[in-house]
Amino acid sequence: MEVLNSQLCEKVFCVIPVNSSEAACTKNLFLAYKCSKENGLNVVWIPEKNCLGLKPCKENVFVLAEFGSPLFDHLQSFECTVVGPQCLLDSLKNRNPIIANAVFNLAMKGITATTTGFSIREKKDIEMKIQFMGGIYSSELTASTTHLIAKSAADFSLKFKAARSRRIPIMIVKWIIAVWDARMQENIHGNDPEFASYVCPVFQGFVMCVSQISAKEREAIKKIIESNGGRYSTQLEKGKTNLLITPSAEGDKYTYARRWKICCLKPEWVQRSLDQGYVCDPEPFAVEKIATSSTPKAHCPSVVNFNNDSVNSTIFNNNSITSEIDETNVNGLTSPIKQPCDSWPTEPLECLDLALSLKSGRFLEGFKIFLSGFNGPQMEKLRYVKNV
Predict the structure, then answer these.
(1) Helix (H) / strand (E) containing 150
(2) Tens digits of residue pLDDT in 137-193
(3) What angle is formed at CA 196 by the lines to CA 243 and CA 185, rounded to 5 degrees?
(4) What is the tens place of the pLDDT at every residue in 12-43?
(5) Which residue in 15, 26, 244, 307 is a FRET match for 167, CA 20 to 30 A apart?
(6) Angle subtended by helix axes 85-93 and 27-38, to nearest 10
C-alpha cells in the first residue's frame, strides 16, 4: 500500500461507481476522463471499492459521479481535491485551475447566499448544497450577498427587509433543490431563466384570516393570497394564523387576534404588497382601537369597496371549543396608525433604531460578545449592531 500511495501524487482519479464500469459510467464522468487525457493530465480509472484503502496526498484529484457516499466522507479527511465531473470539465474547458475541495459543479459560482427563517439543520443542508455547487454561504447578510433564501415572508425579519431595500433577489428553498437536482446537466447556473420561478412569492409563509369584510372582497383577497404563496384560512387559529386582515378594530376576531398577539392589518396592505411585488412595511396599515385624526391616511386603493353584508366567521383556539359568530361590516376605513400593532413587542431592544448604531461608531471594538436567549429577529438585530 505504501508503494501504491507513493504513486498517487499528481494524478486525477476518475472513480468508477459500485456496480458500474468504464463503459457504463455516466456521460459526464466519461467526458471528464477524456478531457483530462486531451489536456495532458495523468488520469486513471479506479473502482470505488479500491479507493477506501488509499491515503491520498494534496496533489490528488478524485472525480466522483456523486457526493454523499462513504468514499466521499473518507476522502474529506485528507487534503486531496474532490470534484464532480462537470466541475472538472468546466475548469479544463475554461483553462481555469481546478477548484479546491469539494465542488461538484459550478452552478452556484459567483453566488453568495444567506438564509432567514430556517432551522439549524435546514441551514446546514442549504449551506452544503451551495458550497458543493461552487457558491458561498454566509450566516450574515453582507455587502457581498447576492441572494437571500427565505422560508417565510411572514416574520418581517431584518434580513428580509434589508434584502428588499437593497433589491437583492429573495428566493425560496426550492430554488437550491431545483439547481441541485439539475446538477448532472451541462452548463447550468442558478441565475438561469429556468430557475426564475423560484423567486419568493409575495405572501410566502402567511396564514391569513379576514374579518369585517364583505363576501365579495373576502373572495378577492383569498384569490390574491393563494395565488401568491400564502394560505387563506376561514378560521382564526391560535398558533397557526399569523395575520388578520380587517378594516376596523371591531369584532370578536379582532379581540382574539390582539389577545393572541396576531398582527392586524388593513386590506390595503394586501393590494399594496401585491403592487410592489413584496410585502411592504406593515406599520402604516396597522389596525388600532384608538385613531389619531392628525395621522395622514395611506394613499392606497382598497381591494374592493366595503358594504354592509353580514359575514360568517370562525375563531379557533387550540385549547378551546370552536365557536361560530356573526360579524357585520362597517363602511369606511380607519386611518393608518404609526404605532405598531400588538404583534410587535415594545421592549427597548425591539424599538432600537439600527440607523443609530451606524452613527455611534465602533463602540464595541475589542469586545467578545456571546448572545443567548433571544428570538430570531432579536438575534439578527443584535448581530447587526455587533458587526457594525
Answers:
(1) strand 147-150
(2) 999 999 999 999 999 999 888 999 899 889 999 999 999 999 999 988 878 899 999
(3) 135
(4) 999 999 888 888 888 889 999 999 999 888 99
(5) 244
(6) 30
User: Does 317 share its domain with 211?
Assistant: yes
Report how far residue 244's alpha carbon sits from residue 207's, in angstroms, rounded to the nearest whole number. 9
**Total domains present in the chain:** 4
DSSP 294-337: TSPPP----SS-----EEEEEEE-TTS--EEEEEE--SS-PPP-
Task: Decide if 100 is inside a domain.
Answer: no
Q: What type of residue is 3?
A: V
Domain that holds residue 81: 2-93
Q: Is the dihedral of CA 80, 85, 87, 90 positive or negative?
A: positive
Summarize pLDDT for 44-55 with one digit per residue, the tens. Answer: 999 998 888 888
User: CA 21 to CA 363: how far, in whole Å?
Assistant: 63
Q: Please state, in angstroms and as integers, the Cα–Cα distance from residue 185 to each residue in 12, 84, 102, 181, 188, following that order.
A: 22, 12, 18, 9, 6
Residue 137, classed as helix, strand or coil, is: strand
In a domain, 141, yes or no: yes
Domain final residue, candidates 143, 172, 198: 198
The whole-number pLDDT of residue 355 equals 58
Instruction: Tell me the one-letter amino acid at 174.
Output: K
d(C-alpha 65, C-alpha 359), whole Å? 52
Torsion of CA 181, 185, 189, 190, to 10 degrees: -10
Model confidence, pTM: 0.66
